[in-house]
């Protein structure tokens, strides 16, 4: 009882796979602001200006030859300590698309400055983006404009800071309970050499003073 | 969250029920805020993060091989598959530069498939057992657990752990198979197949169980794709997609994976993509895993091929490559029991990863909960949660 | 204090204290709360399974804290979860016992160093009787911990004079794991965690 294609499902359509250059060409023809780039180890991607992302996403999903019907992953990272040329302190949001109809992939990236990290939401294009974007907002602090429910998803609502930013300061206490054990010292993670002077994203709000047993909590 | 929903009294009063984070049927610490009108659910909002252990941040703090034990904890029900996903991703990253590319020994590749499929069996056993337990049948669960012990025994001899194995390493596996492992695995499979017949008699063909699952929470193929469902949940909706077959990694390409899909197995009342289909797809995948293990055992090269390895493990020498991996990024997807486990790895060329991102099946499965649970009975919520086989650390990481 | 009296016929009569009698009953019916957060929970589940079968020790899982005597903290407790654990503990009836299973619940385990969200030891929120090390502890280790707990339950006095601080296992009599520090529920003070916000 294997792989009998269910009737009427066009998801099993015979593959008509496009390679990355062809996909890029097609997208750039419709949206000239999009640039085809490749990462330091030669992984191709499309760099899209933030304002264009919804239109590009809709095209990627709806164009008959592209048909990127699934958003396999949406994530982001902080470039501020990445040895990029030229150095930058931006945040990257990356969309990993896959087409079940044609069985091809695409990586789309958006780069936003960390002080005004805002990208329009694509949750209207792929429903699953709703969750992914909440996660990126929570952990990286990229705001998704017009998102239906942009709330923290992993950390508690009153958490301070966005942990996956490279300048994140570990909490000293939460809910009045110290983060570290008595006598435990905090060892800051091994810091790679900083590339660009990154201004702190959000001024850290005052925390309740740690209780006496707080140990020597020190922010990295 | 549901607190901003207006409570309207349309012939009755809405009630808000807090389900979890401590609830035996939520498989851990998932919290659902359920609003219902009588017995009909009008909304169910999942609340996550009760097990958010910052594994992705830890990935930025520890060295490349040191992260492998943490992948065990991303999904402990199938820790081997979780190890495998990360190790394959790092190997692919190293392969983007000729100077750092590593060649995994052939025997290690075969062992990887064997242990991954064994772990898939034991993971699916927990899934189907726990689902039947949620529906009130405790005995099938015990049968599942008893069989899982068989897999655990094999793994314990193999690597010394019952749950968090840390066995698959970057470039190979930690140790060679122990003496007598092949016979042990074969005899386990033989008695396991018999036991599954008993299990199926007990629960799968049970009318009460089937009727409670049939036609509940039907997901169409297009919906499943839009909500990013993966793995058995996606295949339960009739989408024929399995990364092991369609984008093979390791030696899966040689094994010819057969992919079961949902077909409305519950019969008259069943629809493609209902809870029963997801349940059956898991059972069929167990059968397929048994077949794959047998096929892989045939491919196992003799132990004499074992390379002389400086660290005593059964793996390619990656120490030098991991001190200076190529700068850049990679995205790799593998098929874990709960669907795609994909890693996005960004490397800045140092001995610690710059960013490790793990995409898991349970996280996206939760995104469809609210939509799916509108209009079903309160008692069916546990059926739906059980049929998705969510594991909470996979959601929260 | 228990004595066997032979009143003459074949019947045997025990005399004992009420306390000892109650403790004997409690010791042999440690109903535990079915509470698992993470990986250790799977081992807890397997301990309840057919091979290790803790039913034979009188341990039966209960779904609600109000029926449970024992809470086995199986798994990582995060900052977000901690106040819920406290709520659950408060809902259990006295006398209540807590076993902290696994490194995570003991001290944060593998996450204590680099994690921002994991509570480094559940004893910051609730008092713990027995700490079981391991990541995860084997079912045998869990059963060993439970046997040590039964020892404590046997010594517990309901109506007589109680231990001053019945909830701290001193390092010496805790052969299966070191005691990482005094239970610190008193530190909670004014900022004691609230129940779940609806
Ligand atoms: S102690 Fe280890 S096995 Fe137990 S919950 Fe923590 S990480 Fe998981």
At the first level of CATH, the class of the largest domain in chain B is Mainly Alpha
- The DSSP helix count of chain C reads 5
* Structural class designation of chain B: alpha+beta
Number of strands of chain B: 9
Explain what this protein looks like in three dimensions.
The complex is a heterotrimer of chains A (220), B (397) and C (198). With 220 residues, chain A is α/β, with parallel strands linked by helices. Chain A is built from three helices and nine strands, in the order αββαββββαβββ. Chain A has helices at residues 20-30, 53-62, 129-140; strands at 35-38, 44-47, 70-78, 91-98, 105-112, 118-120, 143-145, 173-174, 177-178. In chain A, the strands form three sheets. A five-stranded mixed beta sheet of chain A has the order 1-2-5-4-3, covered by helices on one side. A two-stranded parallel sheet of chain A has the order 6-7. The longest helix of chain A has 12 residues, at 129-140. Chain A starts with 19 loop residues before the first helix and ends in a 42-residue tail after the last strand. The two termini of chain B are 21 Å apart. Chain B is globular and about 65 Å long. Chain B has a three-stranded antiparallel beta sheet with strand order 1-2-3. Chain B is an alpha+beta fold. Helix content of chain B is 47%, strand content 13%. The longest helix of chain B has 29 residues, at 106-134. Chain B has two domains: 2-47, no CATH class; 55-395, Cytochrome-c3 Hydrogenase, chain B (Orthogonal Bundle), CATH 1.10.645. A five-stranded parallel beta sheet of chain C has the order 4-3-5-6-7. Chain B binds chain C through residues 3, 16, 18, 21-22, 24, 28-29, 31, 33, 49-54, 57-58, 61-62, 69-70, 72-73, 76-77, 126, 142, 145-146, 148-149, 152, 162-164, 392-393, and chain C through 34-39, 41-43, 45-46, 49-51, 63, 65, 75-76, 78, 80-81, 84, 88, 110-111, 113-118, 135-136, 138, 196, 198. Bound molecules: iron/sulfur cluster. Iron/sulfur cluster is lined by residues 38-40, 75-76, 102-104, 109-110, 135-136 of chain C.
């Amino acid at each position: 009882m294997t792989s009998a294609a269910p009737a009427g499902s066009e998801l099993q359509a015979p593959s008509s796979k496009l390679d990355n250059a062809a996909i890029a060409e097609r997208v750039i023809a419709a949206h000239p602001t999009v640039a085809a780039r490749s990462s330091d180890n030669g992984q191709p991607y499309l760099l899209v200006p933030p304002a264009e992302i919804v239109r590009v996403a809709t095209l990627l999903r709806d164009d008959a030859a592209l048909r990127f019907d699934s958003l396999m992953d949406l994530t982001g990272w902080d470039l501020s300590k990445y040895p990029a040329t030229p150095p930058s302190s931006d945040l990257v949001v990356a969309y990993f698309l896959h087409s079940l109809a044609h069985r091809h992939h695409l990586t789309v990236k958006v780069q936003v400055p960390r002080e005004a990290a805002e990208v329009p939401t694509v949750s209207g294009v792929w429903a699953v983006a709703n969750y992914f974007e909440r996660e990126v907002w929570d952990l990286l602090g990229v705001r998704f404009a017009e998102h239906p429910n942009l709330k923290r998803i992993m950390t508690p609502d009153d958490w301070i800071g966005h942990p996956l930013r490279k300048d994140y300061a570990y909490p000293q206490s939460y809910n009045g309970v110290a983060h570290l054990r008595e006598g435990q010292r905090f060892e800051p993670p091994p810091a790679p050499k900083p590339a660009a002077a990154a201004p702190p994203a959000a001024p850290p709000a005052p925390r309740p003073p740690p209780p006496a047993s707080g140990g020597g909590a020190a922010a990295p | 969250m549901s607190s901003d929903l207006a409570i309207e009294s349309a012939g009755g009063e809405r009630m808000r029920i807090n389900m979890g984070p401590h609830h035996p049927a939520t498989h851990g610490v998932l919290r659902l805020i359920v609003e219902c009108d009588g017995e009909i659910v009008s909304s169910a909002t999942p609340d996550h993060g009760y097990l958010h252990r910052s594994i992705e941040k830890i990935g930025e703090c520890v060295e490349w091989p040191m992260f492998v034990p943490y992948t065990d904890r991303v999904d402990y029900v199938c820790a081997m598959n979780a190890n495998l996903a990360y190790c394959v991703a790092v190997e692919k990253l190293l392969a983007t530069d000729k100077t750092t590319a590593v060649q995994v020994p052939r025997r290690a590749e075969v062992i990887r498939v064997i242990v991954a499929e064994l772990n898939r069996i034991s993971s699916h056993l927990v899934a189907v057992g726990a689902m039947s337990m949620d529906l009130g049948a405790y005995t099938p669960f015990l049968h599942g657990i008893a069989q899982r012990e068989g897999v655990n025994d094999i793994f314990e001899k193999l690597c010394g752990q019952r749950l968090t194995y840390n066995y698959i390493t970057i470039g190979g596996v930690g140790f060679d198979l122990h003496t007598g492992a092949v016979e042990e695995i074969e005899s386990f499979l033989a008695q396991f197949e018999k036991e599954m017949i008993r299990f199926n008699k007990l629960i799968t063909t049970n009318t009460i169980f089937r009727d409670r699952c049939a036609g509940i929470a039907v997901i169409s193929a297009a919906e499943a794709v839009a909500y990013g469902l993966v793995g058995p949940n996606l295949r339960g909706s009739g989408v024929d997609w399995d990364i092991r077959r369609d984008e093979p990694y390791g030696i899966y390409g040689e094994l010819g994976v057969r992919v079961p899909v949902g077909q409305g197995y519950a019969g008259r009342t069943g629809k493609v993509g209902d809870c029963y289909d997801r349940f059956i797809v898991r059972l069929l995948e167990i059968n397929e895993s048994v077949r794959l293990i047998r096929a892989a055992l045939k491919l196992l090269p003799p132990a004499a091929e074992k390379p002389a390895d400086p660290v005593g493990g059964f793996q390619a020498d990656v120490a030098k490559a991991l001190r200076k991996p190529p700068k850049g990024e990679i995205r790799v997807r593998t098929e874990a029991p709960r669907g795609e486990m994909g890693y996005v790895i960004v490397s800045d060329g140092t001995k610690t990863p710059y960013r490790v991102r793990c995409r898991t099946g349970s996280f996206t499965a939760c995104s469809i909960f609210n939509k799916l649970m509108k209009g079903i009975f309160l008692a069916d919520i546990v059926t739906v949660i059980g049929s998705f086989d969510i594991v909470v650390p996979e959601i929260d990481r | 204090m228990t004595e066997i009296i032979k009143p003459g016929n074949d019947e045997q009569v025990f005399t004992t204290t009420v306390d000892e009698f109650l403790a004997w009953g409690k010791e042999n019916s440690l109903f535990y709360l079915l509470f698992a957060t993470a990986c250790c929970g799977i081992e807890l589940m397997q301990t309840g399974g057919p091979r290790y079968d803790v039913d034979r020790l009188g341990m039966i899982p209960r779904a609600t804290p109000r029926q449970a005597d024992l809470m086995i903290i199986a798994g990582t407790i995060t900052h977000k979860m901690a106040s819920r654990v406290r709520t659950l503990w408060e809902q259990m009836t006295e006398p209540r016992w807590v076993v902290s299973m696994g490194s995570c619940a003991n001290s944060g385990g593998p996450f204590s160093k680099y994690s921002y969200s994991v509570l480094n030891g559940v004893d910051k929120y609730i008092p713990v009787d027995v700490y079981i090390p391991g990541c995860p502890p084997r079912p045998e280790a869990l059963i060993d911990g439970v046997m040590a707990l039964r020892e404590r339950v046997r010594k517990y006095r309901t109506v007589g004079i109680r231990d001053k601080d019945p909830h701290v296992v001193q390092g010496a009599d805790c052969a299966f794991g070191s005691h990482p520090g005094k239970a610190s529920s008193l530190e909670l003070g004014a900022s004691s965690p609230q129940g779940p916000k609806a």
